[in-house]
Amino acid sequence: MSVPSFSLKELAKKLEVNFSGNGDLQITHVCGLDSLQAGGLAYLTGPGGITSVPTPAGMSRQVSTSVDEINSSQVALVVSPEVQHPEHNLLISADPLATHVAATKLLNPEAPRIPGLSKKSGIHPSAVVSKRAKLGKNVIVGPKVVIYDGVRIGENTILHAGVVVMSDVVIGTDCILYPNAVVQDNSEIGDRVILQSCAVIGSDGHGYFQREGVNQKIPQVGNVRLEDDVEVGACTTIDRARFRTTTIKRGSKLDNQVQIAHNVSLGEQALISAQSAVGGSVKAGDHLIMGGQSGIRDNVIVGSNVTAVARAVITANTKDKEVLGGMPGRPVSQWRQIQSLINRLAELFDRVRKLESRQDAK
User: Fold this and answer.
1) What is the pLDDT of residue 262?
2) Residue 84: φ, ψ to 5°
3) Distance between CA atoms of 178 and 192, rounded to whole angstroms?
4) Over the stretch 47-71, which tens digit does the pLDDT of each residue have?
5) Which of 99, 245, 254, 265 is deepest in the core (most CB within 10 A)?
6) pLDDT digits 0-9 by tens, 6-27
7) Chain centre distance of CA 86
8) Could you state, in order of their start, the residue ranges of all structural domains in the chain?
9) CA-to-CA distance for 187 and 40, rounded, in angstroms?
10) CB environment 106-144: b (16+ within 10 A), e (fewer)
11) What is the pLDDT at residue 325?
């Protein structure tokens, strides 16, 4: 598969931004400032970063220069409008990061690249697809995929090797399910949803009761709904509700190894980092951010625009716009003050012992 490239001028036109410098420079890949190679496109978060890319004139004034060193004539930068430099090749954007991301998509077009598919069919011969499943146009089904009765899949969705879609699941258009993802019975998946490898959607919630010292299972008869543009990381699990629906709302992104328990309602545009957990029946507003290894206790109501820093545990209802740290979660400024005091405990104990010795000596 050939890798696309664009001249700086062509790329500027496609991205609908202005450019300055050598419009004929061929851009072959995107990269960071720390990994520039010829044909690369990086972006600047501030005007100062441009000095890290040497110009040919600047290099000629150096006492010694590596023959492999890259200079500004060989690369391009996405910059904000206030950055101007005649010796650099620039794409000028009000939002350099967003433009760099758009360029990444142009230079790295997604393709299913699934081996063994015939030109006449998008279904691999080793796949098992129920005759009572309905697949939209251009659906691609990879090796060893299993699709149960009553499944409906929208147009242009891709199921990579080993995916299992169980009975009566609905999957929207333009979704990607990576190898070994599992979607269990009655789950509902919107459009443009991405499930990374080994994600499990609709597993049983952790519901049990004890009788005479024996754990008894409580049936989980609800389902899971993922709204449009949700992404679920590798080995992340979202449990079905006991009665109704566990919901992940539009645009939320879950990292790898995240646990979402039964009956949870997670608001729009959440960002959940790896190894975090949300307890059963939590109701969270929009724009929740959870740092790595953080958690929310069951049955808690969390406001909108709430942040839990890494390893924080939210144990009580919150208001909007709170930033919480520690366990139990408390305002992050208070948590940092407590951590500072903990770090001084040895010093404080030593001072107390000295004061006690003086008192005893009297």
Assistant:
1) 97
2) -135, 130
3) 13
4) 778 888 888 766 655 544 444 578 8
5) 254
6) 999 999 999 999 999 999 999 9
7) 37
8) 6-107, 181-328
9) 42
10) bbeeeeeebeebeeeebbbeebebeeebebeeebbbbbb
11) 95
Note the residue count of the chain.
Answer: 362
Contact criterion met (CB below 8 Å) for 254 and 271:
no
pLDDT at 57: 65
Please report, as a single letter, which amino acid is at residue 26: Q
Which CATH number fits the domain 181-328, given the four candidates 3.65.10.10, 3.40.50.300, 2.160.10.10, 2.130.10.10?
A: 2.160.10.10
Q: Which of 100, 160, 262, 287 is catalytic?
A: 262
Name the strand (E) or helix (H) holding 351.
helix 345-361
The closest of 289, 300, 293 to 277, measured between CA atoms, is 293
Query: Which superfamily does CATH assign the domain made up of 6-107 to?
Result: MurE/MurF, N-terminal domain (3.40.1390.10)
Neighbours of 291 (CB within 10 A): 17
- By the 8 A CB rule, do 4 and 107 touch? yes
Low-confidence ranges of the chain (pLDDT < 50): 63-67
Distance CA 229, CA 193 (A): 5
- Measured CA to CA, the distance from residue 200 to residue 204 in angstroms comes to 10
For tokens 């049936």, the residue is 219
Tell me the C-alpha to C-alpha distance, in Å, between residue 75 and each of 102, 210, 237, 275.
Answer: 17, 66, 42, 38
DSSP structure string for 92-116: E-SSHHHHHHHHHHHHS------TT
- Judged by DSSP in three states, 329 sits in coil
What pLDDT is recorded for position 345? 87
206 is catalytic: no
